[in-house]
Amino acid sequence: MDFDRHCTEIVTQTGLLRASLPGVDQRAPVPSCPGWDVNALLRHVGEAHRWIGATVAVPSDTPPPQDAVRQVTGHTDTDPVALGDWLADGAEQLAATLRRAGPDGPAWTPIPDGLATATFHARRMAHETVMHRADAQLVIGAEFDLADDVAADGIDEWCELGSLPMMFDVHPEQRELLGPGRTILLDGGEGGRWMMDMTGARLDFGRTTGDETATTTVRGPVTDLLLMIFRRKAPGDLDVTVEGDSDLLRFWLDRVSFA
Known about the structure:
The protein contains 9 helices and 5 strands. The protein is of the alpha+beta class. It folds into 2 domains: 143 residues, Four Helix Bundle (Hemerythrin (Met), subunit A), CATH 1.20.120.450; 88 residues, Nonspecific Lipid-transfer Protein, Chain A. It has a 5-stranded mixed β-sheet with strand order 3-2-1-4-5, covered by helices on one side. The chain is globular, with a radius of gyration of 18 Å. It holds the Pfam family MDMPI_N.
């Protein structure tokens, strides 16, 4: 997926999230986001879009304040029409800001070494919105549908960020993953294949096009693989099969979340 498609998906996924609002109890808890109810989830999405929009609009070495992104509980306004309009406006504004900046527009990011551009934020916000739409769908018990190329790009991004050396500083427990024979293959068939290689000095996650085998293989639709690695659902609750060492899969999933 390219920059323009990521901008488009921010708006598309927000529209799908908005469409699920009527009839939803906004005080219902969101199990995949402990401590949040649906209202807090929606406010987080809208505030995140506005925060990233401000980050991209005025390039700086430091981000703007993000209190509104984090302090999303306790709101009393639950009018679904007003909240839906607010969500849609934020997504549209963010997409427009990103497009004005262009893919190479400079922007602060939390990731070092060459990723400080609007491209990073367009992709991150597209998949942030995707996953929080999944959170909302899980609350209401609705089927979560996602285009295979969007799901595959989400796995690609997850692998790229999860392989960054800085993750050991952010999540020291991930060092426990390293060891001989620790490989996990995510096989999404025509949707893509990804190897999680933990046998070296660093985590190496990413696409593979060969016929490599692994200690553990998880096969299933790419959307289900995406939900699994973001820990929105357990493997047993998804349409996936696990071959090989299932204990390694559990050990890995317990330590690799970053979003």
